[in-house]
Specification:
The protein is α+β, with helices and mostly antiparallel strands. Helix content is 56%, strand content 16%. It has helices spanning 2-39, 48-81, 84-90, 99-136, 140-143, 251-256, 260-286, 297-321, 327-350; strands at 150-151, 157-163, 171-180, 183-196, 202-214, 221-232. The protein has a six-stranded antiparallel beta sheet with strand order 1-2-3-4-5-6.
């Protein structure tokens, strides 16, 4: 009991520290990417927080898998460095005795990973795609922000408003640039506002301004002054590609429609929790550290092992989607290879004289 409780306590403390570090890196990475998109006008500033939440949920299984793997690896490696393993081995505790505590620690987290990959992750992917689709389907007036140059949905127009709409709904110092078939049109107006007719059509009404038409690089420009200029706003067509995105489909829908793409997606969703469980067990023999040697060698090997393992699952997923590999084989092959490698590593640590070192 002392052995098990000490290990579980150390695994939990290490997992908490690793999870906080990895999750902070994840949030920072997503935030930097979204802030860059917001600065370029592709994402509104008020949508950054929601997109961060959806992005964090979709990447949470990777963070949890690495948390389980690294927590077990670091805890057992510290025991080797501090010679605690020598004490346990001298007390008659074999290396296989660590399998039970590791499973007690890893199984609940593997179930959480399964819940996220099978249910919560697809929901977050769907909401993220719907939210981005709703942002892309906004008309040009909803993209305008005071003091910021913004492109239209079709990237043909550039808008700038110096002063935002006040209580009267009017904006001040409006600039519009439009390029079409090699011709440039620039409109500058003192004021502007929105107007709708009885049919629901929306218009931008500009007052007290000028319009410049011509070809860039030539002096042939036409200048017109106006007191009132009215332009109809084109409503963008909403995209309907959500149904074709496999990552946004619920798991039950994938099971009910087992075509090649859906089966490939299932390989990835089922493989993630299995990988977390097997990586936790693989960390037991992989955590061996010679106190007189370097302390980072096994950590580098662990990172390389995770990358190879996750990429193998991704490759099998792609091959199933391309109908180049059967579903059952792709679902089992990467995990069977890891199980065989783990068995050989346990044998190496437990055997007094491995068969490949035996002399005739």
């Amino acid at each position: 009991m002392i052995f098990r409780r000490a290990l579980l306590r150390e695994f939990t403390h290490a997992a908490a520290a690793v999870f906080v570090a990895l999750f902070a890196i994840l949030i920072t990475t997503v935030l930097i990417r979204l802030l860059g998109q917001a600065a370029g006008g592709r994402v509104p500033a008020d949508a950054v927080l929601a997109l961060i939440g959806f992005g964090a949920l979709t990447e949470l299984p990777i963070v949890l898998t690495l948390t389980v793997f690294i927590a077990v690896l670091l805890s057992l490696s510290r025991s080797y460095r501090d010679s605690e393993m020598v004490v346990w081995f001298a007390s008659g505790v074999p290396l296989t005795a660590w399998i039970g505590p590791v499973l007690r620690f890893a199984v609940p987290l593997a179930l959480v990973i399964a819940g996220v990959t099978l249910f919560l992750g697809p929901w977050a992917q769907l909401k993220n795609a719907e939210y981005r689709e709703r942002l892309d389907s906004r008309d040009d007036t909803q993209r305008v922000a005071p003091g910021v140059f913004r492109e239209s949905a079709g990237a043909r127009r550039v808008f700038f408003v110096e002063v935002g709409a006040g209580e009267d709904g009017r904006v001040r110092n409006v600039f519009v640039s439009e390029q079409n078939e090699g011709k440039l049109t620039v409109i500058a107006a003192a004021e502007g506002f929105l107007q709708s007719d009885a049919q629901g059509n929306r218009y931008v009404v500009l007052e007290q301004g000028r319009r410049y038409d011509g070809e860039p690089g030539t002096p042939a420009y036409r200048v017109m002054s106006f007191e009132r200029y009215q332009v109809q706003i084109e409503q963008p067509q909403s995209a309907s590609a959500l149904a074709s995105k496999t990552r946004t489909k619920p798991t039950l829908e994938l099971l009910h429609n087992p075509d090649a793409r859906n089966l490939g997606e299932l390989v990835g969703r089922i493989g993630m929790p299995l990988a977390a469980l097997l990586l936790a067990l693989l960390a037991i023999p992989l955590s061996f550290v010679n106190p007189r040697a370097g302390r980072t060698n096994n950590l580098l090997i662990a990172v390389l092992t995770y990358l190879v393992y996750s990429n193998a699952i991704t490759i099998c997923q792609a091959w199933v989607a391309q109908e180049r590999m059967p579903f059952v084989l792709a679902l089992l092959l990467p995990h069977l290879v890891v199980i065989v490698a783990m068995g050989l590593m346990f044998y190496t640590r437990l055997a007094v004289s491995p068969f490949w070192r035996a002399r005739a």
